[in-house]
Amino acid sequence: MSDAGELRERTREFLAANPPERTGRLDFLRARFDAGLAWVHYPQGLGGLGAPRSLQAVVDAELEAAGAPDNDPRRIGIGLGMAAPTILKYGTEEQKLRCLRPLWTGEEVWCQLFSEPGAGSDLAALGTRAVREGDSWVVNGQKVWTSSAHLARWAILIARTDPAVPKHQGITYFICDMTDPGVEVRPLRQITGEAEFNEVFLTDVRIPDSRRLGAVGEGWRVAQTTLMNERVSIGGMRLPREGGMIGPVAKTWRERPESRTHDLHQRLLRLWVEAEVARFTGERLRQQLVAGQPGPEGSGMKLAFARLNQEISGLEVELCGEEGLLYDDWTMRRPELVDFTGRDAGYRYLRAKGNSIEGGTSEVLLNIVAERVLGLPAEPRTDKDVAWKDLAR
């Protein structure tokens, strides 16, 4: 299906058969998935219609106008933005049919078991081991900075299956059931006072080979799909004008004329323009996705997202004066999502510090942009052809 008018009519017919005001939220979401209106660019039978990605806006507009419930995308962002595209590209038909529907409806939350205490920026140096035993893999190791692990039913996991080859080889990609014996989730309390992140310990966790994504030893290649989509989902989210972090700052500026100075005005103007540039660049990136897979440009968007959030939140604290130093609640909580715009300036300032770490550190992303976007010479890597087991650690 490639005609916007036909898709609009199809959506209206769906709404007539499933009135939002008389249909339970979960029943409505399941029916929407089955009708192919979840993500229209996915194949038929997997929540889509094989239509151009750009036509999703047609469906969303009709559903929003009808007051239809959404799937709370912020709560299930890891599943939607990272797990789903990876499963679609590398998963078996059985995996796609099992995972994608409850993932999209939000019935099953996903998390990402990638980073480790000794393998964050250098993710390929990971040491979590997966050893083959018959039709299963026995996994042992530790993962860290795992968002939503305390809520997740499933995880996307990379582990080392062959330590005798260079670090980018010998990695395999799995789907891990977070309810399996041997999976332990511990909270990591952050500077905000909350434990939105977690560390995950894996002790003799058995994962059936049927939950492997991609070939044995090809996990790094599979993980690139996840990472590229992650950076697009973080840095390239769709926003209205003055959406995101710039909105509260602009509101504060308008409401507090007594706090205005020439210097603050110049900073606000610069950041407002940069936020608009980032917003339009994100829109262009989403349009490029219509034609294929995300490329390294998403790393540039994620870089801009982190820098802007930190500068904008710092300006907001200054505008608020003494009130900007206040903080609403230091209670230890394990939230379901990150709410930048629903909290106060102090929270935004502190939480934005993590933006340059999560989803790839800014330092690593600068290298990616330099090498893969600008074509600059790669940095010398002395460990490139050395077996992982022989690397100094």
Give a structural overview:
The protein is of the alpha+beta class. The chain is built from eleven helices and eight strands. A four-stranded mixed sheet has the order 1-4-5-8. Strands 2-3-7-6 form a four-stranded antiparallel sheet, with no helix packed on it. Strand 6 and strand 7 (197-208) form a beta hairpin. It is globular. The protein starts with a helix and ends in a 20-residue tail after the last helix. The mean pLDDT is 91.
What is the topological layout?
Layout lengths: L3 H14 L7 H10 L21 H10 L11 H14 L2 H13 L4 E4 L15 E5 L2 E8 L10 E7 L10 E7 L5 E6 L8 E12 L3 E2 L5 H17 L10 H10 L6 H28 L7 H24 L24 H7 L10 H12 L20
Estimated helix fraction: 40-55%
Pattern of helices and strands:
HHHHHEEEEEEEEHHHHHH
Low-confidence stretches: none
Give me the count of strands. Answer: 8
Which sequence of strands runs across the widest sheet?
A: 1-4-5-8
Query: Quick check: average pLDDT?
Result: 91
CA distance, first residue to last residue: 53 Å
- The quaternary state of the protein chains shown equals single chain
